[in-house]
Protein: F-box domain-containing protein
Amino acid sequence: MFNALPEELLTNILRHLDHPSLLACRLICHKINNVIQSSAELQYYIELGMDGLVDCAASSTPYSDRLATIIRRRHAWAAMEWNDTVSAHLPGECLAYELVADVLAKLTEAHEFVCVELPSMPRAADTGQMDASSIDTWDLPFAARDFAMDPTQDLVIFLEDTRIPVASEKSRNTHLYIYSMATKEPHQLAQSPCLVINGSESKSLVHPFVGHPFIICALLQIAEDVVLIQYTTLAAESDHIRLWNWMTGDLWLTEDYSMTCGGCGLLSARSFMLPSLKGCGSIQIYTLEFSNDSRTPRSELKATLLLPSSTPGLSLRSFTSHSPPIVARPLQSKMASPAAESHIHVMSVAYNAQFGIRFRLFVPNRVLLSYAAVAPGHAPMLVPWDTWGPDNTRIMEQGDTSTWLRFVHGTRVVAGPPVSRIPPLEAPTSQTVLQLYDFNPHCRRLHSSVQPINGAKAELQPETVVRKGLAFAETVTTRLPYRRVLHRFDKRYTSFFIDDERLLALEHTPPSGRDLNNIDIYTF
Structure:
C-alpha cells in the first residue's frame, strides 16, 4: 500500500525524517530509493545532515541550488580552493577580538570598538581591498578590556577595565555593559543595561590596596539568554564564575574555585563544562536546573570524565578549552549553519615536564551533551577514560602554541605546522604551513572525486597513538575520525581564524606579530 502512494505524497512524508532515517529508507525498496534520489529537497537534507548542518528555514533559495552549494563548498574546503580573496585593515592596537556570525570585531587600547561585516563570496570587492566604509568604529563611553557578542541578537557585552584608575576607587565595582550593535545604545531587551561583579560578596575578591576586584584575566561567553564570565583576581589565587540571564539581569550562578580548574566552556545555554587539574585531570559536566518555585537555577554536576593517567612524576600544569561561538538563531542571509551538537571543543593540556609537553584534545559537543542529558537528581557519574575517550576524541601533540582564538568553527579546526621534534636549522621563511582538520569525514565525502589543488594535500588520518612514557602511564590510542588538509601559503601569517565560509589569515606584523590589523580573507 505504501508503494502505491504518489511520489509527491511520499516526498511530503519523507521530508519529516532526519538524514540517518532517509538513508535507511533507501534500502526499503526501489521506489522509495528512486523518490529520494530524484528529490533535490531530500538529497539536500541528507547532505546537510552529513555535514553536521541545520537548515535555515528563512532561505528562499531553490533546493537544487542549496544542494549544489553544499557540495561545492564541501569540495572547496577539502581542496583548499577558495573563490576570492579580499584584504581588510582594522586600525588600532588590539585588546580583544571576536569572530561571530559573519562579523569580525576588535576592542582597541584606545577603547574603540571596531567591527566589520565580512564579505560573502558574491560580495567580495573587485579591488581586493575591503571598502573602508564597511568598517564601523565607535568610541565607548567607558573603559573596556574584553567583550563577547552575538550579532544574531544585535548584542555585544563589554567587560569594564578596572585597571583604569577612577575617582572613588574604594567603592568601585566591576561592570558588564549590555549594548546593541546597531544603535550603539544599551540593548532594548536588557531590563538592566549593566551587570555588576560585586567585590563585597567575597573578601577574597577584593585587592587589599585598590579595594575592588582587580581582574587580571577573564573569559567572557554568550549563549542565547545567558552570559558567563570566568575571571581571576589579583587578590586571591582562585577562579570565579558568574553567570547571568542578561535579559532579566538575574544572577544565576556564583561559584568560586581553587586554581585547580581550567577554562570553563558553555555547551549550551543551560550546560557548561569545567576542566579540572586535580589528579590525572578530568572534564566536569554541569547543567543549570530550575525548581518549580524559583527563578534562579542551581548548578548540578552530571559527570566527571577522566583523562588518561599521567606518567608518575608528571602533573597537569594547565588545562584550557576553546569552542565555537554559540548564536541564538541562524543568520537570515545563511542557507545553513552548524548544528550545536556537531561543534568541536579544542582543549589544550600541558604537563610540567622539563621542556613542557603539550597536547590538544578534540571532543565533539555531542559527546559532552550526552552526559549533560542525564535526568536531574541522579548521582554524578565518574567515567573512566577507557569508557568515553578512545573512540570519541583525538589527542595530538600541540605544535602551535598561539593563543589567538576563533580557530574552530563547527567541525573544522585550523592550526599551524605539524609538530616536529627536530628544531629548525634556518630562520623562518616567507611561507606559512596551514593544517585544516575536519572532524566530519563521512563516507560520501571520503569517496568523493575531489582532487587537492593550490598546494593542498588532503588525507584521512589513521588512529593517533601516544606512546607510553611521553606523558601518560600507558599507551593512549584515539580514533575520532577526521580528515587533514595541508596547505602552504607563499606569505608569512601569524595565525588563522575560521568560520563556515571563510579562512582569515592574520599577516605577520613585526616586531611583535601580535596585532590584529592586516587580514587576508579567503572566501569559499
Observations:
- Helices lie at 7-14, 19-25, 30-38, 40-50, 63-79, 365-372, 385-388, 443-446.
- Confidence is low (pLDDT under 50) at residues 202-212, 421-427, 445-454.
- The first strand starts at residue 53 and ends at 55.
